[in-house]
Amino acid sequence: MSELESVERPTPLLRLRRALERGTLQNVKRMLAALHPAEIANLLESLPPAERKLVWEMVDPDSDGEVLLHVTDEVRTSLLADMDLQELRAATEDMDLDDLADLLQDLPEAVSAELLRSMDLQNRRRLEAVLSYPEDSAGGLMNTDPITVRADVTLDVVLRYLRLRGEIPAQTDSLMVVDRANRYQGVLPLSALLINDPAVTVAEVMNREMEGIPADTPAEDVAILFEQRDFISAPVVDANGVLLGRITIDDVVDVIREQAEHNLMSMAGLDEEEDMFAPVLTHVRRRIVWLCVNLVSSLTAAFVISLFEGTLEKIVVLASLMPIVASMGGVAGNQTVVLMIRGMALGQVDASNARPLLLRELAVGALNGLLLALVVGLIAFFWFGHLGVGLTLAAALVCNLLVAALAGGGIPLLLRKLGIDPALAGSMMLTSTTDMMGFFVFLGLATWFLL
């Protein structure tokens, strides 16, 4: 295939839209049958409500449950509204309990209760155990399907036990070793089970170093553990060390993706779970709050400028240079904000190491400010032929980059201490600070030195 043909190859969304426009619904069904549930979910999110409903009706019922897990919360709610209880039962029949727990939280209470009543006692108790923990915790992520063995049995006994089971849960790389009270003791890797003498006991080859993850551990911390230690699965325990379940890598990948989407969307005041094709008024209602907050910020900056009307009337060229100071401060500050938020997400930044980090950012801001001040000051001097304007602009730039470094490092820490998501408000607060301080410093210095 040539490079041009590769570039022009239609995307699944384009092929689906063309099939819908032509009314070839059989082609749509065949196309959907060949796709993974996650790919179908992506297509559904990309369609307006009317087309989404039509395509959803053509999805193979056996894939309904998996598709529902991959769409955003708002899209899932709209799809669930068109399903009756019988369809929901069929969709949830073969779901893992951790996935089913996520889905049940989006269902009406009466429907959730009915689905719970339709389950056998053992699975209902397991599901209720998962639902008893917050969704964004290790307990909420876990599946209650680990295979457990005792430390005092031989590997031969374990192998015969697995053959009797006939199958093992997906993402199983280790068996969980527990005592008679179901307290977690370690893991038996499948590799150790296969390569060692069947006559040796589990206790002789088990891994005792892998610690159980407490059920109340935040999902973000679980993701960090999996990343740092290259886990495929990990045990979840209660406060007494009793094994509750296990977390698998596929669930952790979902956490990482959701965190990335949350951080990206939050910087614009948006929700990663919202439907792109939600009604116009719904989008207006959500975004107007963020826009109003920014309006207040802009009005405050305008007020700061109004304090120096006399200076601007006498030295008009200052008006054309003001955006430089504010813009450079905003960019420099955002670099620091992103660095801090990332460090907080990875557990690398907290109050204990904030001071040296802030001092380093101030040093970076000062050096960058001096270098940029030299360049911008010379440009302003040769542009306007006024040495005072060039020096004032240079000094203001250095001051605002120092303010940006301090604000970029301090604002996320302050927001975290106040219990506010730094990704949601950090960028907006930083921009407000650098704009106001940039204008104030630049026009203040100009008033002091040039008038």
How would you characterize the overall build of this protein?
It is a single chain. With 451 residues, the chain is mainly α. 67% of the residues lie in helices and 6% in strands. The chain is built from 23 helices and 6 strands. The strands form 2 sheets. A 3-stranded mixed β-sheet has the order 1-2-3. A 3-stranded mixed β-sheet has the order 4-5-6. Helix 4 crosses helix 6 and helix 20 packs antiparallel against helix 23. It is globular and about 90 Å long. The termini are far apart. The relative contact order is 0.07.
Mean residue pLDDT: 85
User: What's the tally of helices?
Assistant: 23
Content-based structural category: mainly alpha
What would you report as the Rg, rounded to the nearest angstrom? 29 Å
Largest sheet: 3 strands, mixed
Shape category: globular
Instruction: Determine the N-to-C terminus distance.
Output: 69 Å
Low-confidence stretches: 1-7
Topology pattern, helix = H, strand = E: HHHHHHHHHHHHEHEEHHEHEEHHHHHHH
What fraction strand? 5-15%
Extended strand count: 6
Measured as a percent range, the helix fraction is 55-70%
Q: Strands of the biggest beta sheet: in what spatial order?
A: 1-2-3
Characterize this entry briefly.
The chain is 67% helix and 6% strand.
Question: What attributes does this structure have?
Answer:
23 helices; 6% strand; 451 residues; three-stranded mixed beta sheet; mainly alpha; disordered N terminus
